[in-house]
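Form 7-S
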Amino acid sequence: MPGYLRVYPRSQENETLAKQKPTVRIRLGDLFPLLARAHRGNYLWLNDFEDEEVTVTPDLYEVLNAYRAYRPSA
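Output:
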């Protein structure tokens, strides 16, 4: 007998949990190695957070923009 896929509507509780406000502070030096390892290992849970926004200082933002535009010479 084949199994049947059931679709359930989202509950209000799940929607509230999905829209959590950021309250935890972490140093970038602690975060980078974890994210790099998860990215290298192609962990799918990392994709769940692709649309998350982070707040950075203006000087870090400038450095990241400059790095994005950087084209190493051949």
